[in-house]
Automatic annotation (TrEMBL):
Keywords recorded for this protein, A-Z: Oxidoreductase
Ranges where the D-isomer specific 2-hydroxyacid dehydrogenase NAD-binding domain occurs: 105-282
Transmembrane segments: none
GO cellular component, one term: cytosol
Species the sequence originates in: Agrilus planipennis
Pfam families to which the protein is assigned, alphabetical: 2-Hacid_dh, 2-Hacid_dh_C
Annotated D-isomer specific 2-hydroxyacid dehydrogenase catalytic domain residues: 22-313
Lineage: superkingdom: Eukaryota
Protein name listed in UniProt: Glyoxylate reductase/hydroxypyruvate reductase
Family classification: Belongs to the D-isomer specific 2-hydroxyacid dehydrogenase family.
Gene Ontology molecular function, alphabetical: glyoxylate reductase (NADPH) activity; hydroxypyruvate reductase (NADH) activity; NAD binding
UniProt-listed SUPFAM superfamilies: Formate/glycerate dehydrogenase catalytic domain-like, NAD(P)-binding Rossmann-fold domains
Length: 314
């Protein structure tokens, strides 16, 4: 956590006279967490460690409220909270714009061959002007398919307007009223895969979406398609994606999320010239992280005072 964020949280907590136990490790192990949380009143969760009965037991009976500093909830056993009637908060909405920016960033970077371009400069392969040199695909007049049309997906659609795309398609469980307002068409997933030049994943990770992008889904996409994932790595069968990128089943990919995280430095994904990677930093701007941290802290204070949470999970 940067100093800006830490300061923000400390201000909020000091107002409520909380005693803070701060875990400054960037990647604490599960055991590190368990060792530190016995007897706490509240948990400010900024980890993708599973938040379940084991953690709640380790915290103990004083625990009054938990707030996760994430919009995604796939690491949380929500039923465990319901059973124990422990209020649980998360941070939807505040990070939509920052994450949507990264979706567009990755779409452009992958379609315009950013990684390959840099390799060319670094390795001295840039020999001058060439009419066929490192040609990419255009976003203007393209069809963009958004899988998962919640707050982030809709914010991506708003941003795409500026690029004068021809069509925005989306798929999901149901048609959304916001779709019409944004000029986006609700279509079955197969149609979206077949017709999209860019496929952007912004769906939550659930049993249903796990591995939904696999050999069969990539085979339905255009050979020129650019695939972007800013949601969760496990939505994609990563070996199938690697095959698709190597065999030319699709043109390129841009990923902010992958499996595992952190990605080992000798991972095959890093060797693919047509794959742009970011280390799961979709919401990582100074302002957004401060806002997300503040919302998390406010939820904790409210929960501790038995007041309704600003953004409850259930
Ligand atoms: O779920 C979230 O909030 C994002 O992935 C950032 O961690």
């Amino acid at each position: 956590m940067n100093n800006y964020t830490t300061k923000n949280i400390i201000i909020l907590f000091s107002v409520s006279r909380f005693e803070l136990i701060i875990n400054n490790q960037s990647n604490p192990t599960r055991q590190d967490i368990i060792d530190k949380i016995a007897g706490v009143d509240a948990l400010f969760w900024y980890s993708y460690e599973r938040l379940d009965d084991e953690i709640l037991d380790a915290a103990g009976s004083r625990l009054k409220v938990v707030a996760t500093m994430t919009a995604g909830l796939n690491h949380i056993d929500i039923d465990a909270f319901k059973r124990r009637k422990i209020p649980l908060a998360y941070t939807p909405t505040v990070l939509n714009k920052a994450v949507a920016d990264v979706a567009v960033l990755l779409a452009l970077a992958a379609s315009r061959r950013l990684r390959e371009s840099r390799i060319h400069i670094e390795k001295g392969l840039w020999s001058g002007f060439g009419v066929q040199y490192l040609l990419g695909t255009d976003i203007e007049n393209s069809t963009v398919g958004i899988v998962g049309f919640g707050g982030i997906g809709q914010t991506v659609a708003k941003r795409l307007k500026a690029f004068e795309v021809a069509r925005i398609l989306y798929s999901g469980h149901r048609e959304k009223p916001e779709g019409k307002q944004l000029g986006a068409e609700f279509v079955p997933l197969d149609t979206l895969l077949r017709e999209s030049d860019f496929v952007i994943v912004s769906a939550p990770l659930t049993d249903e979406t796990k591995n939904m992008f696999n050999d069969s889904t990539f085979a339905k996409m255009k050979l020129t398609a650019v695939f972007v994932n800013i949601a969760r790595g496990a939505i994609v069968d990563q070996d199938a994606l690697i095959r698709a990128l190597k065999n030319g089943t699709i043109f390129a990919a841009g990923l902010d999320v992958m499996v595992p995280e952190p990605l080992p430095i000798d991972h095959e994904l890093l060797e693919l010239p047509n794959c742009v990677l970011m280390p799961h930093i979709g919401c990582a701007t100074f302002k957004t992280v401060a806002a997300v941290a503040e919302l998390t802290a406010r939820n904790i204070i409210l929960g501790y005072e038995n007041k309704p949470l600003l953004t409850p999970v259930y």
